[in-house]
Each structure stands twice: as structure tokens, then as C-alpha cells.
Amino acid sequence: MAEIISIISTTLVVPASGNKPATRIELSPWELQFLSLGPIQKGLLFLKPTLPQENGIINLIDHLKTSFSRTLDLFYPLAGRLCSSVNEDDNTTCFCFLNCNAAGAQFIHAAAGSVTVADILEPVDVPRIVHSFFPLNGVRNSEGVSLPLLGVQVTELVDGIFIGCTVNHSVADGASFWHFFNTWSEISRGSGEIITLSPVFDRCFLNDVNNVHFPTPIPQSMLPFRPLARPPSPPQSLQERVFHFKKEKIAALKARANAEMGTNKISSLQALSAHLWRCITRCRRFPEDQETKYMFLIGMRPRLSPPLPAQYFGVAAQSGTVSMKTGELLDRGLGYAAWEMNRMIAAASSEATNFLESWVRDPKPLSAPIFSRARDSYCTSSSPRFNVYGTDFGWGKPVAVRSGGANKSYGKITLFPGAEEEGSIDIEVCLFPETFEAMMGDAEFLEAVTV
């Protein structure tokens, strides 16, 4: 697709009231670990509403911009910037915090005059033009010291509207991202001051964690005081596809996995993830003794004791990895792989405070993706539990969700709720063409998926 995106306007939007309830929010290890990576980029595709012929789209954009500004009154940290200072007691470390200075969030109005909704939904692979529907492309989270922490881009299509949202991942995780997106849509469709869940910014839960003190010193290399090279872009040969798994198929995988292990503790998502991992690995045809890894970003709000409130705004996530030999993964069955995932997630739940304490002693940023055909590692992010299709700005629910180009690499797997059936799951997968081709000939994969 050779369509060109036209940028009509770019604006810095500040909170409507101008209030700054807090001037500084400290960042926890969960947030600091994301400094070297790219932001969260998720966007929603809508059918174009019926608009008055005269100034219809202009009025719509103005309305979205006004409601965006009002939403920033509640989510005021997103209008701020990261701030850093050298630790005077140790020239090798620095402090990083969130400065709620109301510097503004980015709002872009764009147009893709020849692109239709069908151009986005009908191709087998997600068209690359989707990445251009997002603002703040090619930036690292550490650049939040000078760039906006939040950007949205409203792109007009022939018969649709795409709203792409980019949020600095050192400020918000997936739960907070969709909390903001949902609240913006709620305000846009006329909910007045009644907000379903107001965000909570208090970090007092960390007071009960030993050896975690604010501000937390980090190596200066994690937040350089000079510009870094841009993160690598996904290679052109990398493809993205969205696979749909119906509720009944997921239930069958869950039942099979639990039956194989003689338990009832394996979840639907663990069974589905194990199924996908085994199918991709089988199609890669690696030697039996080659190691393969599957990483999850695990939401930690309900896993702390006591749990964090659902509306806690920030990052409450840490990674966990299951690793085994290719032969072991394929020979020992679906249930074994799913059970290993279950055990890893359970261990992460019980070791949340250990992670926070150990990270302070030895800060380790999450690493940027590596592009290699020799890799056999996979990373799952996002969640089918997020309220994606409840994001209604006043002209109906979205028809699809897509992600931007940030943090895309071979083996990146993104989870969304299914668009058409409650309990179904859509999975966006990044692989090389030959892997997708092999999967289309894999009977076990095709039995469970709706292509």
C-alpha cells in the first residue's frame, strides 16, 4: 500500500482546568525497568459516523480535543514529563521521576484519504500503513524527559476513523493505558463528571517493601543525558497477522490441558498460549535440543498483598519466562507446557516484593528486541481482559483494534478480546513469512483457529 498520511494539525493539549494536584511522582522499579524500550501503542478502528456536510469532521476533531483536555484533568501526570538528576553522592547513578508540570500531551489530526476500513481489515497481514496511524513513532521511553508522555492521532479514512494512542511505558502499563482510553471515551460521549473509576496515583504501597526507597538510584546509562540512536525498526520481512480463537475452541484447549495434567488450575489463557507456542515451534523445525522461551508480562495489581486497586495508575507488571528444549515442548504435550506457564505465573505472584527489592540492588532494564531468524523466543503482552470494545466515543463501538510499530520483533504476541464474541480472543502475532506459511499447513493449529 502506497498511501500517504497527511498531517492536518499538531497541537499540545494541556489539562482543561490547569490544576496541578501533585508536582512530582516517584517511579518504582516496575516503571524504571521500561526506560530503554519503546512506548505502548494501541489504536481503535471505527466506522465513520454520519456527520453534517459543513464542518462536520472539524467539529468532531474539536470535540475529541476538548474531551481529551478534560480527561487530562484526571490523568494529569500524562501531561507531564520525565525528569532526571545526577546523584551527587555517586556520579555513576541518577534519579528519575515524573514531573507533573502540565507541559502538554500531543494531539494530531491526520488523514489517509484513499484508505478504507476494508483496506485495514481484509488483507491477510496487517498493512504496514497502520503503524503510521500512531504518533511518537521510533522513540524510547527515556526520551520522555523532552518529548510528550502521551500522544494521540485521529486519522480520517474514506469510511472510518482510526484513533491511535501512544503512552510512555515507564509511566503506564496496559491496564492504565486502557483506563485512560476508556475514560476519554466516557467523557467524550457525555458522561459529565461521573467517571467509572478515577485513577489512583498513590505509591504508598511501596512503603511496606523492604529496601525500596524513593527516589530510587539507577545507572546513568538507563537515562542518558545525550540523545540515543532510535530503536531498531522491524525488518520489512517481518509480518503481522491477527488470529481469532472462538470461545468454544479455547474452552476445548483448556479442558484438554487440565485433563493431561490431572488438574483444574490451568487457565484458558495459559492453555491457549501453550497451544500457540507449540504450534509455532513445531513449524520452525528447530533441533530437539534447541532451547525455546516464552515470556509473559504479568499484571501485578491483584498479586500484591494487599492487592493494589484496579484503578492504580502507573506500571504494575513484571516479566516471567518459561524455558525448555524444543523436543521437550513438543513431546510432553499441551498440558505440560501450560502447567509450566501456570507454575511460573504463580511463582511471580508470590515473589513480587522480592523482585522489587532485588531490582533496586541490581537495576536491570528490559532489553530491546533483537531481530534474528535464529531466535525461538516469544513474548506475550496486553490482555484479553482489557475493556477494548467498550471504548465508545459516542458514535458506536470500534470494529477492530491494532497495535503500532513500537517494540515489534519476531515472536511478539499481543492479546486482545475478540471483537464479535464475548470470551473469544484475538491474537496479533509477529513472525517471518515462512513461519506463517507453515502454520497454515499445520492441522492442529487450524483445528483451533479461525483465520
Q: Output the radius of gyration.
A: 22 Å
Structural class: alpha+beta
As residue ranges, the low-confidence spans are none
Order of helices and strands: EEHEHEEEHEEHEEHHEEHHHEEEEHH
Number of E-type strands: 16
General form = globular
Report strand %. 15-25%
Share in helix: 25-40%
Order of strands, widest sheet: 1-6-7-8-3-14
Number of helices: 11
Task: Specify the biggest β-sheet.
Answer: 6 strands, mixed
The average pLDDT is 90
Termini, distance in Å? Answer: 22 Å
Oligomer: single chain
Task: Give a verbal description of the structure.
A hairpin with a 3-residue loop joins strand 7 and strand 8. The two termini are 22 Å apart. The protein is globular, with a radius of gyration of 22 Å. It is an alpha+beta fold and 451 residues long. It has helices at 29-32, 56-74, 117-121, 174-188, 247-261, 268-284, 326-331, 333-350, 352-361, 433-439, 443-448, and strands spanning 6-13, 24-26, 40-47, 81-86, 93-99, 105-111, 150-156, 160-167, 218-219, 239-245, 291-299, 317-325, 377-382, 400-403, 412-417, 425-431. The longest helix is centred in the N-terminal third of the chain and has 19 residues, at 56-74. Helix 5 packs across helix 6 (268-284), helix 5 (247-261) packs across helix 8 (333-350) and helix 6 (268-284) packs across helix 8 (333-350). The chain is 27% helix and 23% strand. It has a six-stranded mixed β-sheet with strand order 1-6-7-8-3-14, with helices on one face. Strands 10-16-15-13-11-12 form a six-stranded mixed β-sheet. The protein has eleven helices and 16 strands.
